[in-house]
Amino acid sequence: MATTAHMPAVLPVLPIRNTVLFPAISMPLVVGRGRSIRALEEAEGADNLIIIVAQRLLTAGDPDPGDLYQVGTLCKIESVVSSEAGAKQIVVTGLSRYRLAEFTPDPRGFLSTRGEPVADIHSGDPIRNEALFNNLKELTREILELLPGSMEPLIRLVEQVDDSGYLTNVCAAYLNLTLTQKQELLETVLVEQRMEMLLSYMRKEREVLNVQREIRDKMSERINKAQREALLREQLRTIRSELGEAAEEETADDLQQKIREAQLPEDAMKQAQDELNRIKNLPSASAEYHVIRTYLEWLASLPWTKRTESRIDVPRARVILDEDHYGLENVKRRITQFLSVAKLKNDLHGPILCLVGPPGVGKTSVGASIARALGRKFIRTSLGGVRDEAEIRGHRRTYVGAMPGRIVQSIKRVGTKNPLMMLDEIDKLRADFHGDPSAAMLEVLDPEQNKSFTDHYLDVPFDLSDVFFICTANVIDPIPPALRDRMEIIEMNGYTSQEKLHIAKRYLIPRLLQEHGIKPEWISLPEETIERIASHYTREAGVRELNRKIAALFRAVAEEVILHGPTTQISLAPDQLRKFLGPERFFPELAERVIKPGVTTGLAWTPQGGDLLFVEATAMPGRGNLTLTGQLGDVMKESAQIALSIARTSSAGFDYRSFDFSTHDIHVHVPAGAIPKDGPSAGVTILVSLVSLLLGRSVESKIGMTGEITLRGAILPVGGIKEKVIAAARGGLSTVILPKKNEQDLVDVPQDARNQLKFVFVETVDEVLKEALPDSHVEEATVSAA
Fold first, then answer.
1. Could you give the 3-state DSSP secondary structure of residue 374?
2. Same domain, 323 and 445
3. 308 in a domain, yes or no?
4. What Å distances lie between residue 424 and 228, 289, 318, 382, 609, CA to CA?
5. What is the 3-state secondary structure (H, E, C) of 631-698?
6. Residue 506 shares a structural domain with residue 633
7. If you average pLDDT over every residue of the chain, what do you get?
8. How far apart are alpha carbons 32 and 55 in whole angstroms?
9. Which range marks the domain in which residue 503 is found?
10. Of 67, 239, 376, 506, whose CB is crowded by the most CB atoms within 10 A?
């Protein structure tokens, strides 16, 4: 305190705003207020000493004593420089804290004060003081390292400080604190208390600086990456230019030229022009630039006006269908009828065709044949498993990675606006929380709406009215009624054994021989072998598995040729199949059935075609209960109840009057219990099984039947007759019992299947029982309502 030993009793006061000056700290100030300039002039006659104190009220122009804090800083004026504007630029250095006791007004208008300097006080605990001092130095060094720029000189200065009071003044002066916090530190004379306060403030400041540094590093990394990418792109352009190669990225002018050549409609052109104007003002490194560029490329790549010349030649279409497919006469006739109408109208707009049939019957290949007959490009779009509406209608461009829907993508891929588009597996569309894709398909397939189909990504209408849509499905039931109403259903049923033989000889074997590099003279493949593969190694309505088995057979032949050479012709007789294809997988189930009472053969329809359905019944002591097993649906269970009711009311006509229904339980089982079964067409079969059981007479295993029964004993027509008759022929049955009203459905059954079977048409259950149990006594009109 030697500097302040002989200081005047009254010193001028210089109020300052927004900051606090601490002892041992030098600070430049600009003094412009008249009262403050006069205070400086007074200080020149007082050994250049002046009291600097912070204002409480920052808005006060000439503060009164009440507007100032009670503790300020005794300072020495180091230099004074006058400016042309009348202000003075000074540099002051703090000497000590100063407590203002009373203010003395000066006639010249400035404030003077009496008071006393305030010295630092230590707590007297040197260990605590040293611990706080070391923590403060360490925290100060950490904060300086977090600040941007080079702080090495300040860090070395802090490391050299050995006075805790001086360090607190330095930290308080330069730390980012509020005016109130700084004033509190100035008014605190206990050094240890000041250090504790600073440690609290500085820890918060360190957290803030850490976050700021992370943000600064991330921004710097992004900027450096963008600058590096821009530099590399520029270098790449230069290298490609030197090599005479085309630039990697198209400019906005190139995109504009492409859009002009695409001949977009007016609304699409306006949208494209707006996006072009936006992209011209964006840097090529920005993310939005690439989003807009991708969008413009999509607009430019779509065939807005491109079309292939379509010709409707019905005789040629029939020739192509016959070349590509065997059988399917009804399908071919319906397609040629459709094309004939289109030829007369000179317009292909009309109902959407939907080919429905089991897997492997040629639905997709029929669509390709129609496209070839019309001279149109063919594109197939699979809809199986689609659950999101955006898969059909596209994603909006606000989403990251947005793309058009499958319809627009297919149009771009095929490159023409009038292709034949096959929508495969339309029955496999599924709705969930993402929306209902079948609802989006309504706009695609409706001729009144698809003229202005709007994909969410494109956001402009695209005309789909020139697209020839053909749908495929395995089953018609899952297709929503509104969508089904827009389509014309063409059923494609399974193939008979004879048709499979012709398909294999005419299409499958020649193609597979070529694919496997086998010459026809190397093998001997009789028809019996093909029939054996179809009946004992496959069980399907189509020929897909048959194709795979023949391919496996030819792979084995190829191995034989490579190992032993084509020295002798390889025999592929039926007895050689086990060697090449392994053991047989399927056996005629009738051969395994034991002819016994209660067992009856029925006919069933499945999505894969027709099949044989066996019903087994047995009785045991009990309380008159009926047990049904085999995963039967509600409709089939009700048919069993009806069959039992008819059997009980018909007891007078049969010789089982001694059977007491009240003391016996009856169990009806339909084998293949893992497969769900339902429908009313098994009613006849269940009734015959029950009557056979009650009479103790067996039903001939070569007899198959189908039909719905009523309590009045009437036989109602059922569906799937073609598939069921084909399955009967394939299963080796000799007689088929059908409802009388289904007689007309035999027109659709292939002739070779009809030739193998005897058909019995019935209208009542009495007629059924006479045919199925001919040796039993059956009276007329024995059935009455229960």
1. helix
2. yes
3. no
4. 47, 36, 23, 5, 19
5. CECHHHHHHHHHHHHHHHHCHHHCCCCCCCHHHEEEEEECCCCCCCECCCCCHHHHHHHHHHHHHCCC
6. no
7. 84
8. 16
9. 497-581
10. 376
CATH number for the domain that contains residue 755: 3.30.230.10
Whether 724 and 660 share a structural domain: yes
Point out the domain boundary residue: 118, 139, 154: 118
| DSSP-assigned beta bridge partners for residue 115 | 100
Q: How many Å separate Cα 49 from the centre of its chain?
A: 78
- The type of residue at 537 is Y
**For a pLDDT cut of 90, what percent of the chain falls above it?**
21
Q: Which of 159-163, 168-172, 240-244 has the lowest mean pLDDT?
A: 240-244
Identify the pLDDT of residue 591.
41
Q: Residue 135: inside a domain, yes or no?
A: no
Q: Is residue 679 a part of any domain in this protein?
A: yes
Q: Which of 500, 549, 722, 724 is catalytic?
A: 724
Rounded Cα distance, 648 and 138, in Å:
102
CATH number of the domain that 481 lies in? 3.40.50.300
Task: Give residue-wise pLDDT tens across range 548-558.
Answer: 999 999 998 88
Tell me which of 782 and 453 has the higher pLDDT: 453
Structure tokens at 88: 């003075």
Burial (CB < 10 A; 0-12, 13-18, 19+), residue 626, is middle
Mean pLDDT, rounded, for 644-655: 72
Cα 194 to Cα 132: distance, rounded to the nearest angstrom: 10
Mean pLDDT of 745-774: 89
Examine the fold and report which residue of 555, 581, 607 is the final residue of a domain before the chain moves on: 581
pLDDT at 586 over 80: no
Query: Which pLDDT tens digit goes with each residue over 274-326?
Result: 888 888 777 776 778 888 888 888 988 999 888 888 788 888 888 888 888 88
The Cα 33–Cα 282 span in angstroms is: 51
Q: Does residue 132 sit in helix, strand or coil?
A: helix
Q: How far apart are CA 750 and CA 499, in angstroms?
A: 9
Q: Count other Cβ atoms within 10 Å, centred on residue 617.
A: 25
Number of domains in the chain: 5
Judge if 723 and 686 occupy the same domain.
Answer: yes
User: Rounded to whole angstroms, how far apart are CA atoms 233 and 290?
Assistant: 14
The tokens for 23 are 């002892």
681 is catalytic: yes
Gap between the Cα atoms of 547 and 784, Å rounded: 53
In a domain, 194, yes or no: no
pLDDT of residue 494: 74
- Average pLDDT for 511-535: 88
d(CA 547, CA 541): 13
Would the pLDDT of 592 be above 70?
A: no
- Mean pLDDT is lowest, of 229-233, 677-681, 733-737, for 229-233
Handedness of CA 395, 397, 403, 407 (dihedral sign): positive
Q: What digits encode the pLDDT tens for the residues 424-434? A: 999 888 877 76
Catalytic residue among 164, 681, 689, 692: 681
pTM: 0.60
Same domain, 656 and 751: yes
Residues 441 and 327 in one domain: yes
The CATH number linked to 514 is: 1.10.8.60
- Both 576 and 597 in one domain: the answer is no
For residue 779, pLDDT beyond 50: no
Q: Measured on CA atoms in the order 273, 278, 281, 287, is the torsion positive or negative?
A: negative
596 shares its domain with 568: no
